[in-house]
Amino acid sequence: MSSKSIGAKKKIKINLDVIKSAKATGKRYYIWDSLIPGFMLIVQPSGSQAFYLNYYDETNRERRLKIGKVGGIKPEQARKEAENLRARINNGENPAEKKHETRIEANFIEIAEKYIEEYAKVHKPKSCKNDISYLDNHLKPFFGKKKISKINHNDVQQFHLKMIGQKPTANNCVQVLSKMMNLCEQWGFRQKNTNPCYGLKRYPSNQIENFFTPDEIKKLMLTIDKLETEGKERPYEMALFRILLLSGHRLNEIMALERSQLVRERNAAFWQDTKTGKREIPLCEKCFTLMDALPVDPNDKTNDHIFISARQSKTGYMWRPIKAWKRVLIAAELRYIRIHDLRHTNASLAAASGVPIQVVQKRLGHSQIQTTMRYAHLYDDPVRQSSEMISSAINNLTNPDSKVADFPKLKVVA
């Protein structure tokens, strides 16, 4: 940063009128205050504005302190803060260095709150509750007020080992912790490439994948049709269960779906916030037919959600219809498996039908192919069948009664 890069600008007293007249130009520019040396307004290419104080420290190094964003702080408040900072600088202090030291000394609990407010609630609102639970019940009690810059690999190992009785939760906690540490590097609380979670061996997943057999799928679908026709269950839950089986998507993604997210010309739906970020996922024509048949919210015509709640809901959509799901299973006389296992059922059918594992991965939205490989054993039958077919074809060549014309033509490949 240098004065030259900032450029010489005519100084003017920064007030509300100046702020209102400062429009976006597509380039960053600076407005210097005429009364307080170094006090300035920076206008970003987007038009966003913030107050800063520019000064030189004892080593003649140019420093810049952000006072606050326009809208978050009034001009007179920013001016008063700039005056206070100037007084401290004149007394030999270096406010920028002190701010840096304070950030480095932040403790785990402080960073956990920052993570929730500035990252989880903004970027992963649907899974934010899970992150809060992992932090409040496990991570905060263990790390407490330990300085964030002092947390090392051994600390993370000890935490992970302490939770050996809750292996899946332990792995999820470390995943949240690792994201926090990456953000700490961006925020300036830790040095670059010092994430203490790197290299930690996670507990292996012993999760048993449940899915319906073809006969069970038939019983399930017939029961859903019957319960809805007889008026014993709401159409919203019944359509939800059908679509989960047809699409293989996650419950939270389908449950919170809005009509505006549907891309009909592409037979797809677009999600801004999923477990793996933004993605567009294909939906079959049957899914669209089921959603089109569902009436809009009779109590709120502005509610764009497709699967509305039976009761008044803050979100506008239903929340985990576990009771309806249990009633369906009891009526169908089926064993209990989770709603989430409809997703596994869809994936198992795709795998058993010989759909390439990479295609299954993309359909399910798995970021790692290892996650999809849990269905790999279901490819065994098609592979065995192909082996038998090839063996039979070769054996036919040794049969005196067979004709060469009966054998498939071979193509020479390089």
Q: Would you write up a description of this structure?
A:
- The protein is an alpha+beta fold.
- It folds into 3 domains: 3-95, 2-Layer Sandwich (Double Stranded RNA Binding Domain), CATH 3.30.160.390; 108-187, DNA polymerase, domain 1 (Orthogonal Bundle), CATH 1.10.150; 214-377, Orthogonal Bundle (hpI Integrase, Chain A).
- The protein contains 17 helices and 7 strands.
- It has helices spanning 3-6, 16-21, 75-90, 95-104, 108-123, 128-143, 153-162, 167-187, 214-229, 235-247, 251-255, 285-292, 322-332, 341-352, 357-364, 369-372, 380-397; strands at residues 29-32, 39-43, 49-56, 62-69, 262-263, 268-271, 279-282.
- The strands form 2 sheets. A 4-stranded antiparallel sheet has the order 1-2-3-4, covered by helices on one side. A 3-stranded antiparallel sheet has the order 5-6-7, with no helix packed on it.
- Helix 9 crosses helix 13.
- The chain starts with a helix and ends in a 17-residue tail after the last helix.
Biggest sheet, in brief? Answer: 4 strands, antiparallel
The radius of gyration computed from the alpha-carbon positions, rounded to a whole number of angstroms, is: 30 Å
CATH class of the largest domain: Mainly Alpha
Low-confidence residue ranges: 1-8, 404-414
CATH superfamily annotation of the largest domain: Intergrase catalytic core
> Counting H and I runs of at least 4 residues, what is the number of helices?
17
User: Could you give the count of β-strands?
Assistant: 7
How many domain modules? 3
Q: Architecture of the largest domain, CATH level 2?
A: Orthogonal Bundle
Q: Which shape, going by the Cα principal axes?
A: elongated
